[in-house]
Structure formats: structure tokens, C-alpha cells
Amino acid sequence: MDMPLLGLGTWPLAGDQARRTVRLALELGYRHVDTAQMYGNEAEVGAGLREAGVPRDEVFVTTKIHQDRFTEGTALESARASVEAIGLGPVDLILCHWPPRGVAPAQVAEELAAMRDEGLTRHIGVSNFNVSQMREAAAAAPILTNQVEFHPLLDQSRLLAAAREIGVTLTAYRPILRGEALRLPAVRAIAAETGRNPAAVVLRWIIQQGVHAICMSTSRERLAGNQEALDFSLSEDQMARITALTSANRRSCDYPDWQPDWEG
Fold first, then answer.
1. Using an 8 Å Cβ cutoff, are 99 and 232 in contact?
2. What are phi and psi of 32, to 5 degrees?
């Protein structure tokens, strides 16, 4: 199956809450679930997927390998452990979580390709790679996506243009900026115009650009409301009004020890 445009993020869910939320999301119709080694919940996510009873081939499962495993030379072994922890057989997508320091993007892609060749995953990709890193990785091995921070207060137009040029999708994390994007006057006005909730408006703005979106909630109402993003379209004017907000160019995910030069 192709990667669905809308998915469930599972950070910072843990334990029974992670298991129950995954099960609930699948019951509501979600068919894309995103986890990571760093989240410490791969086993619980896998349990929730099994409990939901949805056929395995109808759910797109993503996990991310910690970047230090690439630095240490243990990425392949670590990926085996993640797949075993999830407990569903091969996953659909494995990403390198952040660009590992001292390891070339081409080498990262080659190690990810080894995971695919071993049958641990159907697709490979990267996360938090800048333009040059994404280009180098994609030149070394076919990658499906680059998962990055993407929301109405951050200008990712350069990265999106490069991704389109080389045939790589983007996947948005923190798409509603932990709720801040829902309070923006332009978003609220467009929500009133369309009769949709603000979260659906923001998510629609993202997926209407061909960008996938990963969002987390434990609320049945909010999980269901997010799915409204798949049921309508924004006008060119409405898209432009939200895009104008990206001039703020503000990142919320700040990890100085991990993040690349975003302008690279």
C-alpha cells in the first residue's frame, strides 16, 4: 500500500496509553502509524496494532532508527531489534531519525538500503535532513520520504521544492505546532468559512501540498476531527493566506546536538 497522507504520531505516548491510542486510531479509520526507537514505545504500538484487528496489509507502519546507531555501526542490528519489538513482521518504512554526525548521507542511505534488502522494511527514508543531505541520500538509494517539522509558521518551501524535484515526499511532524497553529486568526477565519475545525484546516493546507502529516492526540473527538482534512479542499486564496504565515519561519523542534545546518 502507499503511505497514507494522514497518520498517527505516537510521541510522547508510553505504556498502556500508547497501546490504547493506537487501537483507537485504527478503529476510527487511521491506517498510518508512526513510532521510533527514541520514543520507547515500539512494543506498545505493535500491541495496539494487533489488538485493533485490522489486516496487517491495510496499515502503513513507520519506525525510526536512532542516529547514533549509524555512528556506532550498529544500525542494521538495531533495525532488526525494532522490527522484533513491534512484532508485526517487516514494517513499511524505516527512517534514520536525525542526520548522524560524522556519517555521510550516502552511507546512511546505503545502510538503510541494507535493511530493506534484508526484508526488514518495504521502504526507507530519512528524517530532519536538510536539502543537501536529502539530495545526497536520495542519490545513493531510493528514499520514500524526509520527515521534518512542517506547519504554518515555518517556511519549508525550499525543502519542498527540492523534494519534488528529486521525487521524494515530505512528511510533516508537529503539523499543528502543539496547538498553536489552531489559534492563528487566519486559520480560525478559514475554519469558519469552510465549516471545518481549525486542525482539519491546517492539516488540509499541508496535505493539499502533497505533504503527508503525522499528528498525535489521545482524544477520540480530536482524532476523528483530524480526519476531516481528507474530506474537503481549500481554495487558492485560502491556501495563500495560510502560506503567508510561514514568513514567521519559526522552528519549535530544537536539538543543537543533532540538527543539521537547516540552510545546507
1. no
2. -140, 120
What stretches of the chain show up as alpha helix (H) in DSSP?
15-27, 42-52, 67-72, 75-86, 105-117, 131-140, 157-166, 185-194, 198-207, 220-226, 236-243
- What is the 8-class DSSP label of residue 195? T
Q: Does 201 map to a domain?
A: no
Q: What is the pLDDT of residues 48-67, one digit of tens each?
A: 999 999 999 999 999 999 99
What CATH number is given to the structural domain containing 22?
Answer: 3.20.20.100
Q: How many domains does the chain have?
A: 1
In a domain, 167, yes or no: yes
Structural contact between residues 121 and 90, judged by C-beta atoms closer than 8 angstroms = yes
Backbone angles phi, psi at 64, to 5 degrees: -130, 135
Verify cis geometry, omega within 30 degrees of 0, for the bond prior to 12.
yes
- Give 238-258 pLDDT, tens digit per residue: 999 999 999 999 999 888 999
User: In which residue are the cell numbers 523534494 written?
Assistant: 163
Q: Is 30 a catalytic residue?
A: no
**Kindly report the CA angle at 216 between 52 and 14, in degrees rounded to 5?**
70
Contact 85, 46 (CB under 8 A): yes
- Considering the domain boundaries, does residue 94 fall inside one? yes
Single-letter amino acid, residue 112 = L
Chunked into runs of 10 residues, the chain (264 residues) has average pLDDT values of 96 98 98 98 98 97 98 98 98 98 97 98 98 98 98 98 98 96 98 98 98 97 97 98 97 91 91
| pTM for this predicted structure | 0.97
Q: What are phi and psi of 215, to 5 degrees?
A: -135, 145
Residue 104 belongs to some domain of the structure = yes
Domain containing 97 equals 6-178+209-218
Catalytic residue among 30, 39, 173, 255: 39
